[in-house]
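Quick note —
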Amino acid sequence: MKSKIAEAIKMKYSPVAILWTDERPEKALQFKEGRWGCETFLLCSAAKGRVAAADRETFGCIGGGVGLGFGNQYLNFPGGIEYYISTGNPEFCNTEMGKKIAEDMPELVDGEGYVKNPELAKEFVNSLPMIDVPTRYVVFKPIELVSDDEEPKVIIFLVNPDQLSALVVLANYDRESNVNVIAPFGAGCHQIGILPYREGESLEPNAIIGLTDLSARKRMMRMVDKDILSFTVPFKMFQEMEGNVEGSFLEKETWASVIGIKEGD
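Predicted structure written out below.
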């Protein structure tokens, strides 16, 4: 599969397709069972040309399990996810179990401070569109490795500010409304998984701007350029946008000037 969009906006990294499948791709990168890992590693690896996969035993971290669609894994979060992302749970961390967990997860003591208090954090978690995908694997593939008989759930673009601007314009290019791109709060894996999965159920889905999760950005800094954000679309919206490249602003002078294309290039 090829992308006219990727060519038109001069992407450095390959667009990444997320697929649901019962077949593990040969030589796919995958976390070891029981080992911690961040889904940004799988995403960035796919953007650089590798295939990666996760299942219910190898999703790396609890948030990643939720984000990729392996059910409500937050029920297994020690000390409570609502405390972890808000003000912390020092009481739990003073228990024998909590002390051991806090050695590897020090944020559990005072919290990440991403939500003001545990009550609001609990409301946020309860609002997430958690699902249990009907397949064994969730697979990350560079778009050029997606075969014609495969249908991705979503397509993820890793883009700089200029490229993000172009994608926002293109997402609105053939729509009656001007709100077709949203940037909901959530973990980086929510923003490439369950949130765009939900959009895919809509007649006119929105694109999701993501990787605004500071923890995800911290972990991916050494893998991609620092100014990268994600732009994720359900597959049917990707097809819509692909069909609108020709004749659009992407073939006109203003975009060429922004992206630095000179006449004759």
